[in-house]
C-alpha cells in the first residue's frame, strides 16, 4: 500500500513541479515590454507544454483555419490538429493555414481570464466552428466506411491568472453560461489558479474543476480524455477544395476526343 501511495505522490509532485516551471517561464515574459511580443512568447510556452504531453498524432501550433469555400477564421493562438491525414496548407515556420476538417481543438492565450477575455476567446472559437467541414467515405482494404459524423471542435482559454476573487466561482459561472452554441468555451486553465471544463455535458454546463496546486495535470488528463473520445478527424473531401478553385471544361465531344487519341497513336 505504501508503494502505491508513494507512486501517487510522485506523479502528483512531478506535475506540480512542471506547473511551477511553466509559471516561472510565463512570469519571465513580464520583462518583455511590447504586448504583442509578450503574448507571442507566452503562446510559445503553452504550445511547448501541450506538445510535450499530447501524443505525436496531434500537431500543436499557431494557425489560421480555412474551409473548402475559401472562408478563413481569425488567427488562432493554438490549434490542435491532425497532420497525418490532412496536411497544413501554405505552411511556413511562423504561421500555417489548416483545413477545418483537420482541427480537434483551438485555444486562445491571455494574461488573465476575466469577462472580456472569456468573450474574446469565445469569438475566436466561433470563427473556427462556423467554417464548413466536409466528410467523405473512407476506403480501406475490406471495403468502405461511411463518412464520419462531424464532432464539435473543442474550444478553450489558457492564461496565467484569473481576475475574479473567487476564481471560477459565481461571477465566472454567470458569464460563462451566457456563451452558448458556437461560442461555448469548453475548458480553461490558469497556470496560477485552477482549471475547468464542461467536457462531460457541454449542453447542460456540467462543470469539472481541477485543484489549484495540480491544475495543470488535471487539465492535461481531462483534455487527453476528451481528444480520445473524438477519435480521428473526418476524411476530407479534397474535390471540394479543387472545385472551389474553378475548373477548365473540356469542350471536345467524345468523338473528337477519340479521334485525338487515334491520331496520337499513329505517331
**Cα distance, first to last residue?**
85 Å
Strand share of the residues?
15-25%
Mean pLDDT: 87
Find the structural class using helix and strand composition: alpha/beta
List the helices and strands and how they pair.
Blueprint: H1 2-28, H2 35-53, E1 58-66, E2 72-82, E3 97-99, E4 103-113, H3 115-129, E5 138-140, E6 143-145, E7 154-162, H4 170-176, E8 187-190, E9 195-201, E10 206-210, H5 215-230, H6 238-244, H7 254-265
Parallel strand pairs: 1-3, 4-7, 7-8
Antiparallel strand pairs: 1-2, 2-4, 5-6, 8-9, 9-10
Description:
- The chain is of the alpha/beta class and 267 residues long.
- Helices cover 39% and strands 24% of the residues.
- It has helices at residues 2-28, 35-53, 115-129, 170-176, 215-230, 238-244, 254-265, and strands at residues 58-66, 72-82, 97-99, 103-113, 138-140, 143-145, 154-162, 187-190, 195-201, 206-210.
- 32% of the residues are buried.
- The mean pLDDT is 87.
Amino acid at each position: 500500500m505504501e508503494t502505491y501511495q508513494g507512486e501517487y505522490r510522485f506523479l502528483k509532485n512531478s506535475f506540480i513541479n512542471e506547473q511551477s516551471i511553466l509559471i516561472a517561464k510565463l512570469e519571465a515574459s513580464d520583462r518583455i515590454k511590447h504586448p504583442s511580443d509578450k503574448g507571442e512568447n507566452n503562446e510559445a510556452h503553452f504550445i511547448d507544454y501541450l506538445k510535450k504531453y499530447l501524443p505525436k498524432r496531434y500537431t500543436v501550433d499557431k494557425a489560421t483555419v480555412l474551409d473548402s469555400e475559401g472562408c478563413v477564421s481569425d488567427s488562432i493562438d493554438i490549434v490542435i490538429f491532425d497532420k497525418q491525414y490532412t496536411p497544413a496548407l501554405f505552411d511556413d515556420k511562423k504561421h500555417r493555414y489548416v483545413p477545418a476538417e483537420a482541427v480537434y481543438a483551438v485555444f486562445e492565450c491571455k494574461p488573465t481570464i476575466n469577462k472580456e477575455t472569456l468573450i474574446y476567446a469565445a469569438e475566436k472559437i466561433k470563427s473556427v466552428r462556423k467554417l464548413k467541414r466536409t466528410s467523405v467515405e473512407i476506403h480501406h482494404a475490406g471495403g468502405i466506411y461511411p463518412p464520419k459524423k462531424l464532432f464539435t471542435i473543442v474550444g478553450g482559454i489558457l492564461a496565467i491568472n484569473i481576475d475574479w476573487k473567487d476564481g471560477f466561482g459565481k461571477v465566472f459561472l454567470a458569464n460563462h453560461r451566457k456563451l452558448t452554441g458556437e461560442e461555448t468555451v469548453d475548458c480553461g486553465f490558469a497556470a496560477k489558479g485552477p482549471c475547468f471544463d464542461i467536457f462531460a455535458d457541454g449542453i447542460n454546463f456540467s462543470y469539472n474543476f481541477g485543484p489549484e496546486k495540480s491544475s495543470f495535470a488535471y487539465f492535461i488528463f481531462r483534455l487527453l480524455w476528451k481528444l480520445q473520445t473524438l477519435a480521428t478527424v473526418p476524411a476530407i473531401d479534397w474535390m471540394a477544395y479543387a472545385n472551389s478553385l474553378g475548373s477548365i471544361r473540356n469542350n471536345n465531344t467524345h468523338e473528337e476526343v477519340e479521334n485525338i487519341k487515334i491520331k496520337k497513336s499513329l505517331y
